[in-house]
Specification:
two-stranded antiparallel ribbon; globular; TIM Barrel; alpha/beta; 9 helices
Length: 310
Amino acid sequence: MKVGLTLPQLEIQANRQNLIKFSRKAEEYGFDSLWVLERLLSPINPQTPYPATPDGRLPSDYQTVLDPLETLSFVAANTEKISLGTSVIDMLFHNPVVLGRRFATLDVLSEGRMICGLAIGWSKDEYQASNIPFKNRGKRADEFLDALKSVWSDDVVEFKGEFYTIPASKIGPKPIQKPHIPIYLGGFSPNTFSRIVNYDANGWLGVPFGPLEQLKSTASTIRNLAIRANKDPNAFKIILLTYLNISDTKNSDGKQRFPMSGTMEEIGNDIKEIKDMGIGHVVFSHFFTPLYGNIDQTIETSKQLLQFAK
């Protein structure tokens, strides 16, 4: 199983020295990928509750977030072979030609190391700041994916849709990876899973917000959708982004343990279970945990967990 790490991209850890140290150590230790997220802003009075916190507000670390593609460009120049992914970029905040060229440029300069994780976003505030209507997100995303693939793959790009129009043009560079940079879609709705299959994405980029058993249900859903569409179900993969929260003692209060939290032994067992499900790529994130404040401890602790995945 491949193992990735999220880069120190937020708040006080987001600086040149940490990115160089972290990315080079990750490559030296045998990690397979490095990941960044996109967060345009942190609203004072959010119109849409953040789904991962009880009060619906974004964690304070989201107040300063390095731009994802600029960060990966810097990291690409300081590494040699490790894959570089976005988890995720909200595609509708961007133009498919502009975003496509930026990804393709990075794929060329990194010699084919990019992984494109995309989603449609959930924040009305970010949509408002991007001057994009919040409604019809799904329909717009479908069209975006068609346009993006054309930018990456077609010799002559010409696109006429409801939301995007590209006059007949030569658009380069093209990505090194063929037929295009791998595309993984994030999200939890049935429409997301249908979109993965209908638009031939490489798979699902997910986060386990509940018991690991739920992942089996998601994998089964995608597989069944592929079969009904007469497509190879094995062509659709899963990359799992997990939040590590390591403690010295096992859970003893009877409450259900959140996946990838607990002792190293418990987390190791989670990794083995994920691997046994057939998931081929897991990403460790230390955001919003005590480990995130110490770059050295973050990378060394993550290294100890590699044994359970390989």
